[in-house]
Amino acid sequence: MAEDLKLRRYKPATCDNYLRCARAFVAYHRKPPQQMGLDEVRAFLLYLAEQRKIAEATQHQYVAALKFLYATTLGRPEVAVAIPWPKVPQKLPPVLSGTEVEALLNAIGSVKHRTIVLTAYGAGLRIDEVCSLRVEDIDSKRNLIHVRNGKHGRDRYVMLSAPVLTALRIHWRAERPAGPELFPGRMQGSVISHEAVRSALREAARRCKLHKRVTPHVLRHSFATHLLELGTDIRVIQALLGHRSIRTTVRYVRVSQAHVGRTRSPAEVLGTQEAKKKLG
Fold first, then answer.
1. Of 18-32, 95-109, 141-155, which range is least confident?
2. Does the annotation mark 126 as catalytic?
3. Which positions fall inside the Core-binding (CB) domain (predicted)?
4. 80, CA 20 to 30 Å: which among 33, 230, 243, 253?
């Protein structure tokens, strides 16, 4: 299965996740997957849902991994097709206010961690994207950041704002990275771990007494919502976030209370010339 994932150029994090799910499936039944079929898959998924009480989104990951295992590695697509996708509720993503983002940044003591968090928020980057940035990806002449190998393996460009560029320069002077990695890890050739960034965010949220859930992805949601509230076209937001479908980006419309508040009700124009002209 590991070779099949690599041949299809799945990202390392996805490979690790799929393999972890497949190993859990085998460990539950204590026999090789070649000897199991749909009944065993259903029993395992029911165990996860009813006894482990995993979230719907987590169950979705298990289903994706098992579908890949049976359809690709074992060559049994009839089993893969019959595995049901769980219905995942569309919850409104949490969003920080501008004041909360500013307080969070001020509460981060490390220059390196603060620069990573500001870059993630200021450019709407996923945690893997910001941690993997290279020095050559920063184009200060055109005010662009080159995001390489994003989700689904696609590259894109995002804005390089003045505050982010200033922070990156301060980080560069303090850190002086020896290799191409902008945010290197402890081992040569590695990048800073995702957990190190998450831990810095949790500690900053504790310091400034934020009671909202704060994660790198919350920063990304906040970036998109704040852009919408500033009047940015949703198609531009889609391109900046690297969404393949506008439907994913539309989720942020539901989040933005300011956007809703600025929307005029048709009741406001009833009986006016504008209503006769536009509403008939």
1. 141-155
2. yes
3. 1-74
4. 243
